[in-house]
Amino acid sequence: MWQKETAAEATVTGIAVKSQPTKTSYTVGDKLDLTGLTVTLTMSDKTTKEVALADFETNKITVFPANGAVLTAEHKTVSLTVEGVDTPATITITVHPKAEVEIKDETLKEQLPADEVTIGATVDKGDKIVIDAAEAETKINDDLKTAEEDVAALPETATADEVKDELGKTFDVSKAPAIKKINTSNKFTFSIEVQDADGKTKDHSGTVSVEIPLPSMFQNAKNLLAIHYHGNKPRILPTIIKDGKVSFTLTGLSDVALVEYTPADSGSEDPQPPVDDNKPGSSNDRYVAYNPGGSSGGSGGGGGGSSSKKGGSSMFNQLTNTINGILKSQLSKGTVGAASAVTGTAAASISTPATQASATRAISQAVSKARANGSNSAEAIMQNVSVVSASILESMASEARKSGVNAYLSVDTMKNGIVDVRVRIPVSAAARLGRDVNMASVDNTAVKARFNRYYSNRLDVVALAQNGSFGVPASVAARLALGNANAADLHFYSFNAATNSYQEMVQTGAFIDVNGYLHFNTELGGYIVISVGALELK
After folding, report:
1. How confident is the model at residue 294 (pLDDT cuts 50, 70, 90)?
2. Span 12-96: which CATH code?
3. Where in the chain is the domain with CATH 2.60.40.3630?
4. Quick check: pTM over 0.70?
5. Cβ distance 57 to 81 under 8 Å?
6. What span, in angstroms and rounded, lies between the C-alpha atoms of 228 and 225?
């Protein structure tokens, strides 16, 4: 009996911008607004389809940085990608610098050249940041004298908690590091405020990052406190001293005093808790992890978790297309194994040691499997390999280009015969960078101990060997000791051991699979701290 043959469903082969968004000019700290944006999708049957912004998710279109993300000066373009297409469409945007900083007090001008001061406050057009002499100078002097005397009166055997309790009579110490004594012989005071074009002070109660040149009296200082006179009780805040500058984060704007202190455990390598490093230059600046398109999680902890509902900013522009969710329920219980990291992706293993020939052979095998399975994705998998050379990446990308298949590379770090951490990158995008990529994971013991020492959360650390940026969005799957945590409750932080500071990474696609592996996405290597709930000091 004759049956009519069913035509194959058309697939997307290209994406282009049809209508630009209404707004393309911003100021640092503004949120990206893509209202008015429409794109044209080209299909495999030569037809086209127009898609409005509201329908992007339905059509598997990903925007990077995300609509609503907080913009920094590094943002130059917005990338639009669609599943199955390697080349993104782009929109050019302009992000203008923040408001002018004016130093009014003549004495302060000698210490704080305006062009070397960075205040991460978003202000209205025409407003400026004004730094002047502190208004509460007398109160600051009295408070510091009282605090120094009270702490000095404690016995030498006083613990950090006892010192904190004593300081708590005068100050809010909820953010204070562990302190042994305060030295007020040198202090540096000033005020920060926002003024309009008429010189009138305007209220500013948001989070503000501050970075100033290290005042001359503190050139040899190793530990400084920032005391912020805002609200009902002045607050003691930790600072970061680096490259001749001191930085800290305020909530609201008003008087600030800088003083030296001796850490309670100055003999250790870690005298202060890691501090939240809101980057100077933007308010509430958060690093936004690459969103793989909302993969759903397995029964191990819920799916589609998000560490924050706030927007954020990326370290650099997106360089490749959507990476789908990884390691689904088809994987064997308790292991990751050599199976493909992506549902519907054909995989082949690369023999060790990896060479251009073995890598090309593996991706060729994966491409053949992909064609046989009707898939447009192929993956090569390595085990216990650290640096993947630029030449190997280019060989794999060249082989994939011949077939028009999207190629991925996964590297598994094994522990006791089981995959401990898997890192996965898109090959073509990585090859275009023309440099080596370190895809290994390393020991996390010291950093985990550091955070457990100061923070009360249940947490774990993924230590990636790549120093700085991968250059492409990477998918990570890791076995972590987070108990029965739900992915929706997890917060992700990028930790810089050199500055002892961390920055939150906003995740919108994290999930825990049925085998207990946590999946998330990152552009940055180094230490990724994952906590149940936002980090809270003990």
Report:
1. very low
2. 2.60.40.3630
3. 12-96
4. no
5. no
6. 10
